[in-house]
Amino acid sequence: MLTTGAVMRKLITLNPTVRFIGVASSLGAPWGISLDVDALNPELAPGVSTPVNGGLKTDELQKVLRGILRDRQCIGLEIAEYNPLRDQHEQTLQLILSLIDAASAPDADTQRRGEAGFGARNSAPLPI
User: What are the structural domains of the chain?
Assistant: First the structure.
């Protein structure tokens, strides 16, 4: 699992538009993330009032957010600036749901520990 400092560094390098709320300066303190969806690429997330050209790439953001809500010190992920009136075919809503899904997914180490606790020895995903 990434430390709070590592998460902060990763998110800051993605784009300065990603802002934080309640991020403690020392490790071990509770922290949270606030993500304005208008910081995302408007071609992928049109459901915002103030789109930003050259916004964040969603695949990169999903990788950074993966498992972040499983950190016991993370007190929340706020997703703001969504405008359903401008959301063509709920495209932005689906993107937001995928970000929440990524943020609540277990990281590989957590998945292996959970599976080992039930006697499983294979953490590879099942083919669908």
Answer: 4-117 (3.40.800.10)
